[in-house]
Amino acid sequence: MIKRFILFIIAVTYFGSVAAEEPYPIQNKIFIKMKANPKKWQGKEVAFQGVIDEFIDSGKSAPYFKIKMPSPEVAELWAALLFKPGMGYNFKVGDIVRIFGYYQSFDKGVESVGANNSGFHLLTFCVVNISTSETYFMPQGIKQCESWGRGELPKLNN
């Protein structure tokens, strides 16, 4: 009887943890592949976590920030928020964020991307500010952001 109970507890613990999806999953481990071949990843949906290292908000266009990701090695990624200025977002350098959007490469030297000379960035539909427990999303992407919150990596063209 005790052996059955122990097996039951082990089974419930194992299968319960396998079935549960983490909200707002991330893919930091694929970033190195993306950086090596940005054209291949053009338009792909991705999600990352990092620390805001730089934040640019001119008040005229969408905010733009650089995050540093610790894994698998220190890497930087610029993200353009697809939100209108004045939507009440609250970001500052040092905040830990999870971002979801699609990967876009561009020709280096494009004036509209300012300090970003990497040749790629993430066009961001959803942001979870872990530091403040606030979630921001582009209104047209609410379904995808809700799916991401349930542990899925949704397609943006759904």
List the helices and strands and how they pair.
Blueprint: H1 2-19, H2 31-36, E1 45-56, E2 64-69, E3 75-81, E4 96-105, E5 120-129, E6 134-137, H3 142-149
Parallel strand pairs: 3-5
Antiparallel strand pairs: 1-2, 1-4, 2-3, 4-5, 5-6
What does it look like?
The chain is an alpha+beta fold and 158 residues long. It has one domain: Nucleic acid-binding proteins (OB fold (Dihydrolipoamide Acetyltransferase, E2P)), CATH 2.40.50. 20% of the residues lie in helices and 31% in strands. It has three helices and six strands. It has helices at 2-19, 31-36, 142-149; strands at 45-56, 64-69, 75-81, 96-105, 120-129, 134-137. A five-stranded mixed beta barrel has the order 1-2-3-5-4. A hairpin with a 7-residue loop joins strand 1 (45-56) and strand 2 (64-69). The longest helix is centred in the first third of the chain and has 18 residues, at 2-19. The protein is globular. The model is unreliable at 1-20 (pLDDT under 50).
Q: First CA to last CA: what distance?
A: 50 Å
Number of extended strands: 6
**How many domains is the backbone divided into?**
1
List low-pLDDT spans. Answer: 1-20
Give the helix proportion (percent range): 10-25%
Task: State the shape.
Answer: globular
What's the name of the CATH homologous superfamily?
Answer: Nucleic acid-binding proteins
- CATH class equals Mainly Beta
> What's the architecture, going by CATH?
Beta Barrel
Output mean pLDDT.
Answer: 76
Q: Specify Rg, calculated over alpha carbons.
A: 18 Å
Give the SSE order as H and E letters: HHEEEEEEH
Structural class: alpha+beta
Strand % is 25-35%
- As an assembly, this protein is single chain
| Arrangement of strands in the largest sheet | 1-2-3-5-4
Provide the CATH topology.
OB fold (Dihydrolipoamide Acetyltransferase, E2P)
